[in-house]
Amino acid sequence: MAGFLTTHVLDTAGGVPAAGIKVDLYRLDGDARVHLATMVTNGDGRTDSPILPAADFAVGRYELVFQAGDYFGRSDDPRFLDDIPIRFGINDPASHYHVPLLVSPFGFSTYRGS
């Protein structure tokens, strides 16, 4: 069984799923970042399919970049948070890796979910 990568973004300031957040996935190879996918969160704050599906899943270092600034930026004022990069490793090619993001205009947290 092959693993896969998913995410879920929740707007903790509004108490709602964060719909419409652009998420980019990169594989880290030394100092290089290789772009693998771009997705946008749906009305439930999730992507419509795994960000990294089983067919492309591999051991390695990755980075998810959540474009939260565009989500919260409803004016021309500078945003406290803009792009939020989260770097993590995948070491079990048979596991489901879930990287949720809890975000507000002034802070965020993440963890390895299930």
TrEMBL record:
<feature type="binding site">
    <location>
        <position position="8"/>
    </location>
    <ligand>
        <name>substrate</name>
    </ligand>
</feature>
<comment type="function">
    <text>Catalyzes the hydrolysis of 5-hydroxyisourate (HIU) to 2-oxo-4-hydroxy-4-carboxy-5-ureidoimidazoline (OHCU).</text>
</comment>
<dbReference type="InterPro" id="IPR014306">
    <property type="entry name" value="Hydroxyisourate_hydrolase"/>
</dbReference>
<dbReference type="InterPro" id="IPR023419">
    <property type="entry name" value="Transthyretin_CS"/>
</dbReference>
<feature type="binding site">
    <location>
        <position position="46"/>
    </location>
    <ligand>
        <name>substrate</name>
    </ligand>
</feature>
<dbReference type="GO" id="GO:0033971">
    <property type="term" value="F:hydroxyisourate hydrolase activity"/>
</dbReference>
<dbReference type="InterPro" id="IPR036817">
    <property type="entry name" value="Transthyretin/HIU_hydrolase_sf"/>
</dbReference>
<dbReference type="InterPro" id="IPR023416">
    <property type="entry name" value="Transthyretin/HIU_hydrolase_d"/>
</dbReference>
<protein>
    <recommendedName>
        <fullName>5-hydroxyisourate hydrolase</fullName>
        <ecNumber>3.5.2.17</ecNumber>
    </recommendedName>
</protein>
<feature type="domain" description="Transthyretin/hydroxyisourate hydrolase">
    <location>
        <begin position="5"/>
        <end position="113"/>
    </location>
</feature>
<keyword id="KW-0378">Hydrolase</keyword>
<dbReference type="InterPro" id="IPR000895">
    <property type="entry name" value="Transthyretin/HIU_hydrolase"/>
</dbReference>
<dbReference type="InterPro" id="IPR023418">
    <property type="entry name" value="Thyroxine_BS"/>
</dbReference>
<keyword id="KW-0659">Purine metabolism</keyword>
<dbReference type="Pfam" id="PF00576">
    <property type="entry name" value="Transthyretin"/>
</dbReference>
<comment type="similarity">
    <text>Belongs to the transthyretin family. 5-hydroxyisourate hydrolase subfamily.</text>
</comment>
<comment type="subunit">
    <text>Homotetramer.</text>
</comment>
<feature type="binding site">
    <location>
        <position position="111"/>
    </location>
    <ligand>
        <name>substrate</name>
    </ligand>
</feature>
<dbReference type="GO" id="GO:0006144">
    <property type="term" value="P:purine nucleobase metabolic process"/>
</dbReference>
